[in-house]
Amino acid sequence: ETSNKEIILIVQFETKEAVDNLDEILKLEEIDVVFIGAADLSQSLGFPGEYNNPIVKNIIKEAIKKIVNSGKAAGVVVSSPDSIKYWTELGVKFITCHQTMILTEALGNFVNSFNKVVID
C-alpha cells in the first residue's frame, strides 16, 4: 500500500490505436500520468513529423481534455518556452523538454549577453 502511494505510474501513448482506446486506458486507476508522444503519434496518424498538423493537434487536444477530465495528469514534450503556456492552458501538468531546447536557449542567452558587452 505504501509503495502504491509513493510510485507514479506514467503511460505514454504514441499510436492511433492508443488514441482509439484512451477511454479504456483512463479507467485504469493505477495510472497517474498519460504522456502523449506527439511525434510518433503524428507518424501513426499518417502525418509523419507533422505534430503541428491541425488534425494531429486536434486529436492531441481532445486527448488532453479526456485525460484531465479523468483526474489524471496529461503530459507532453514542449518544443519552446512559448509552447509551455499553450499546453498548460489546455491543462497539461507534466512537461518535459529535449536537452537541445535547453542548450539552444542557454546559448542564445549567452550570445546576446556577449554581444551587449562587445558590441554595445
UniProtKB/TrEMBL annotation:
Annotated ranges, domain HpcH/HpaI aldolase/citrate lyase: 3-81
Annotated keywords: Lyase, Metal-binding
Molecular function, one GO term: aldehyde-lyase activity
One cellular component (GO) term of this entry: cytoplasm
InterPro entries: Aldolase/citrate-lyase_domain, HpcH-HpaI_aldolase, Pyrv/PenolPyrv_kinase-like_dom, Pyrv_kinase-like_dom_sf
Family: Belongs to the HpcH/HpaI aldolase family.
Protein name: HpcH/HpaI aldolase/citrate lyase domain-containing protein
Native organism: marine sediment metagenome
Native organism taxonomy: unclassified sequences, metagenomes, ecological metagenomes
